[in-house]
């Protein structure tokens, strides 16, 4: 016969459970146990709890019993579950990893799960190892032999180190309104429209949208970010030519920072990001006037992560652009609203890279960077 367990939470336990349900990422089973304990503390019957939380009566009883016999953490934690013994021993798992890291069989471009399962059948006494078992063992070691990553290898030399430390020194300075540091970059985006109107969400039903979409062209985003104060600006254009870049630099000097004596601009090595772009766009006197108030600081080649504005572009895409926007006017309005809200919230990028950390970020080339220092 089941023994009735009475749940009585203290204030600290109630606060802990409220915080658990209030935010953060937690397992669904853990959240349901928290709901069970909160409901039981409120005196709700077990049958009503089971119905409202969508669990069985045994789950309600077991959660309450674990709280009474143990404590809150014991009641919220996962019970040990029996399972079958692993097919691969530690040595065999190591052999699987070593095989996945070796060259694939002749005539094959890369290892697949099926090839690895067959290889383990030949190399061990097992027969008929499943691809899913192989996948799980590889996942434990963060291995995906069927994937390849392409990346640009920076040439680490004196010029690399000089540009890296020049940019990091700018970030480390104190804010100076007369000599601001502004990070600048551009990012293309697609205009993706709906073919059919999405169905709004309702209680118990997520928003639904059609898998088919309409491509309405592209747009370009020029993004400015002040390295020392909570200000950013996004300009939407059709193109990203030298002429567009020159207009952005004029806006930066005459509109955004009219009182600054010298604006230090951090930017990458794109062919349009040059002083010559201003002379190609404006009369020589005007181009010279603008450039006298600008100072370009270029990041090392293939080192976009060193430009602080790259982080801000990621925030923009995650908070605003990660959806279908099919019209340029809508894109401009949505970005303007995001920009206004983010500036008003005083949001800033918390830059934590020092020269030492940036050298470590160079990965296999860190020793070469250290040698140049």
Q: How many discrete domains?
A: 3
* Amount of beta strand: 5-15%
What is the CATH superfamily label of the largest domain?
Ribonuclease H-like superfamily/Ribonuclease H
CATH class of the largest domain: Alpha Beta
Task: Give me the count of strands.
Answer: 5
Please describe what this structure looks like.
The structure is a single chain. With 373 residues, the protein is an alpha/beta fold. The protein has 3 domains: 66 residues; 51 residues; 195 residues, 2-Layer Sandwich (Nucleotidyltransferase, domain 5). It is built from 16 helices and 5 strands. A 5-stranded mixed beta sheet has the order 3-2-1-4-5, with helices on both faces. A hairpin with a 5-residue loop joins strand 2 and strand 3. Helix 3 crosses helix 4 and helix 7 packs across helix 8. The chain is extended and about 85 Å long. The C terminus is likely disordered.
